[in-house]
Amino acid sequence: MATPTLPPFRAPYAEDDGTIAGRLLAGSRRDPAAKARIDARATGLIEAIRTRKAGLGGIEELLREYSLSTKEGLALMVLAEALLRVPDAATADRLIEDKLGQGDFAHHEAKSDAFLVSASAWALGITARVIQPGETPTGIVSSLAKRLGVPTVRTATRQAMRVMGNHFVLGQTIEEALKRARSGTGKLYRYSFDMLGEGARTQADADRYFTSYTAAIDAIGRSAGNDRLPNRPGISVKLSALHPRYEATSHERVMTELVPKAIALARQAKSYDLNFTIDAEEADRLELSLDVIDAVFADTSLDGWDGFGLAIQAYQKRASAVIDHMGRLAEMHNRRMMVRLVKGAYWDTELKRAQERGLPDYPVFTRKAMTDLNYEACAAQLLKLRPRIIPQFATHNALTVATVAEMAGNAEGFEFQRLHGMGEALYEKLLRENDGYACRTYAPVGGHQDLLAYLVRRLLENGANSSFVSASGDPDVPVSQLLLAPADIIGSPSAARHRRIPLPADLYGPSRKNSAGTELGHEESLDSLLKEIAAAGSFPDAAPIIDGKPQPGVAREVRSPIDGKPIGKAIEADAATAERAMAAAAKGFRAWSETPARIRAAALRKAADLMEARRGLLIALLQSEAGKTIDDAISEVREAVDFCRYYAAQAEEHFAAPTVLPGPTGEENRLVLRGRGAFVCIAPWNFPLAIFAGQVVAALVAGNSVVAKPAPQTPLIAAVTVRILHEAGVPATALHLVPGGTEAGAALVAHKDVAGVAFTGSTATARGINRALAAKDGPIVPLIAETGGLNAMIVDATALPEQVSDDVVMSAFRSAGQRCSALRLLVVQDDVADKMIEMIEGATRELKLGDPRRLDTHIGPVIDAAAKQRLDGHLAAMRQQGRVAWAGQVPDLGGTFVAPHIVRLDRVSDLTAEHFGPVLHVVRWKAGELDKVIAAIDATGYGLTLGVHSRIEATVERVVERLSAGNVYVNRNIIGAVVGVQPFGGHGLSGTGPKAGGPHYLTRFATEQTVTINTAAAGGNASLIAMGE
After folding, report:
1. Each residue of 17-57: pLDDT tens digit?
2. Angle (nearest 5°) at CA 159 between 156 and 162
3. Which of 630, 625, 619, 631 lies closest to 562, judged by CA?
């Protein structure tokens, strides 16, 4: 008989907060007697927290002492996570000095008598006294400090960090953790062991985590004793640790590769009758995670076991739907399931991600009280599903504990959970006074180097001043304030949202709307987008457009770089057509220039709306004509939309009305901005929509007429864009299209009526345009050029390897490395280079090179055969010199593909030219030689983008001060500049400025006129006389 299957979990991604609040508030009413019992129990628990004097002290004391809202707290955290990873003494000393200089540790008298806090304050206080801000460890004048020396300081700080680490982590190995769990208070609690470490970046990571889970299950199982579930230990497993590409777009691959691994681990846990919990991930992976869980749970080899479970996050708006789904799943397979309910640990990440992606709403609640209210509702839902579901309530909030205890009615069939090192006083009292309640300790296991992410999440959750953990231990906060029920804090559905957190669309305030994106991890949103792309059908042909009319000529086929197949036809302009287009633009200039700026701005806003409405066609074109993957294509449509809206807002601010200038009384002074004339905009093929549209709309909204010349490789999308702008209200006489090659380009630049040129492309071509403009006898006109870069990223030993790997792989290989901002040169400190490069190679190996129209493709082709030939030539030369460290495989699709390559160089100066493709060059540097590295990067003459990965702020400041790159990115990737947020453009060999998408860009397209009127000319200054006393 076939195993029954449940329809996959699918629910609205981000339902309206108010709608959810209406439901939750309606179901939250409690009779006064129940409320009184909850308050009495919660008060007892809070008093226990406040009166307990900890011998060693717990994490709560540390959090209160060094809260994240203090400089000391932040410095302590950064120091803790980075110091234990730094291999070389010199960098460690600089890190200690940098962080201790940020807080007043020397004068920090510990308010808590807990040993942990005292030890930390003592060690950090001594360290801060020895190394005063501004001094370097080696330059300490005092002979005592010299004698005590830096090693003592380093040892004291490391020791303080280790003491702290031991309080967060039960053991560095599972054996150590089990030993500690069995000692002392360990007997009081059930345990769930969490093997620390973040998601896998490489297959080797995934294999290592799998082996670690296997060994841990064996060790836990062998020492688990004879109790029956649920009173047995367990293990928590992160699916993202078991697969290097745990993402929605790799769904098929994840299901094929990960499900058998998860089943193997679950079977092993079953053999010892352990609790096996699959941990929660971010919102965009929820559907994927539940598809994996459904498939694993359906395996008949797990029948008869009650230990399988998962964690559900109450801050997710879909939490209730997940509980319903799990109830049906357990029922269908006639098995029990353990469900851990948590508040959720990625709140800030979820908000940022939704804002960056331009989602319609947040998948999580923006108010903490809404999460608490949802937690209560989800708890009630889980308790009703007993005994099929065994609920596990993870919380350190005394009010939540008391509320759950009241709703449960008895202590049967559920348990509470706490994090190791936290909630001790609360649960000691609860378990001591109420026989029958069970509590499981969630205990992290792992080395100090894995502690960071866990530590920071705990601190963000519990160190915030609004957190219950923080407030419950603070005697200045009245108990009555802590007993306010979440429903009373929210009050009405209209208060469900946080007042100061705007919706993603409103991120930039009233002047412009954020562009709309798509959540690829939500099947309904993705399907809707894919239907729009499929509906695009065949693409419109391209031809020169003058005064709105297509011009005749010889058509050629436009072929896709994916497979070399024709996708449309284009007629290219010759020199005569280019001349006619310039003459038409010169003629159309005045009427458009005299059109009020707000009407010009309205045309741009309408164009932005049309682009969003026709995203299917635009994305299909970007994929087929430019070889873009779906996420790159979505980002590019959004960038074009952002350019339109941003420049519209800028024009209204600066061009709509004259700027009134100060001056003497009786005189009026105004500064007016107006268009220059007919502007030529020459766009590249690598952003054939965003940069093409960005240049064109900037010139137009500033009051210029425009002749737009797209790259020869991408005429089709340019023609569609011009048609959209005409439809949006830009007159056909103000905007003309001239597709073509160098002949058309040269004719445009050489024309006598050119009022300015906006160009994005190679430095060599920019020089040619500059010379052509300078050779003319007419007016001296502006050239706005954005050219290439030898973009470097400097990485020191304090950088987090996983973050470096993510950022390097994305910066070097996304868009097949065909971005002006792409990473060309990784400069990494020798002490950590081996580990980092190995991780980067492993992560790059997991990227899928192929047809970018397929959802699971990460890298598409390079633009054409000439680009491929140039890159292949460079790689052949590098191979001959024995410098190729790693090379990927090219798919057999017939297109112009170049696989990612990693090339070793001896020094920065070995990279003499920009290689525009998926090629990363790596140079190592020795500690102490940062200034040499900076000088070598500076000597290249380029200044476009620069990355710095370091936890030492003084290092970051030094690099930023010395290198004047146009865009500097710290501890993140170096691509994807957002309009109005990271204005883009460089200087030196990288361009002229001003920056595209920035506040100074439009003025370069304009002339300035000052108008001075003597208002007293009629014989007196009436306004002065009428002023009165």
Report:
1. 999 999 999 999 899 999 999 999 999 999 988 887 554 34
2. 155
3. 625
CA dist 506 and 515 (Å) reads 10
CA distances from 328 to 6, 176, 319, 522 (A): 8, 39, 14, 21
Structure tokens at 339: 């469900």
Q: Are 275 and 192 in contact (CB under 8 A)?
A: yes
Question: How many Å apart are CA 646 and CA 507, to the nearest integer?
Answer: 13
Q: How far apart are the first and last CA of the chain?
A: 99
Integer Cα distance of 206 and 211 in angstroms: 9
**Closest Cα to residue 901, out of 770, 982, 809?**
809
- Strand ranges (DSSP E) for 762-869? 783-786, 792-795, 825-829
pLDDT at 1015: 86
- For residue 387, say if its preceding peptide bond is cis, omega within 30 degrees of 0: yes
**How many other CB atoms sit within 10 Å of the CB of residue 404?**
23
Q: How many other CB atoms are found less than 10 A from the CB of residue 407?
A: 17
Residue partners of 947: CB distance under 8 A and separation at least 6: 791, 792, 793, 794, 807, 811, 823, 968, 969, 970, 972, 973, 974
Query: Which residues participate in catalysis according to the annotation?
Result: 786, 820
- Return all residues near 866 (Cβ < 8 A) that are at least 6 apart: none
Question: Taking the CA atoms of the chain, what radius of gyration do you get in angstroms?
Answer: 32
For the purposes of burial, counting CB atoms within 10 Å of the CB of 474, is it exposed (0-12), middle (13-18) or buried (19 or more)? exposed
The secondary structure element, H or E, covering residue 885 is strand 884-887
> Which tokens is 849 given?
């090179």
The Cα–Cα gap between 798 and 542 comes to 52
Distance of CA 760 to the CA centre of its chain: 27
DSSP run (H or E) holding 1003 = none
Strand 705-709, strand 735-737: pairing: parallel
Q: Which two tokens stand for residue 423?
A: 């909630």
Nearest to residue 790, comparing CAs of 907, 873, 682? Answer: 907
Strand partners, 557: 569
What pTM value is reported for the model? 0.93
| CA–CA distance, 458 with 460 (Å, rounded to integer) | 6
Q: What is the mean pLDDT of the chain?
A: 89
Q: Is 536 exposed, middle or buried (0-12, 13-18, 19+ CB in 10 A)?
A: middle
pLDDT average, residue stretch 244-272: 98
Count CB atoms within 10 A of the CB of residue 271: 12
Mapped onto helix, strand or coil, the DSSP state of residue 622 is helix
Task: Quick: pLDDT tens for 656-697.
Answer: 999 999 999 889 999 999 999 999 999 999 999 999 999 999
Would you say the C-alpha torsion 38, 44, 45, 50 has a positive or negative sign? positive
Task: Give me the helices (H) in 84-202, please.
Answer: 89-100, 115-130, 143-168, 174-182
Q: Compute the distance between CA of residue 957 and CA of residue 441 in angstroms, rounded to an integer.
A: 43
Q: Percentage of the chain with pLDDT > 90? A: 76
Q: Can you tell me the distance from the alpha carbon of 541 to that of 719, in angstroms, rounded to the nearest whole number?
A: 8
CB 156 within 8 A of CB 127: yes
Other residues' Cβ atoms within 10 Å of the Cβ of residue 569: 16
Torsion of CA 902, 907, 913, 916, to 10 degrees: 20
DSSP string, 304-367: T---EEEEEETTBTTHHHHHHHHHHHHHHTT--EEEEEE--S-HHHHHHHHHHHT-SS-SB-SS
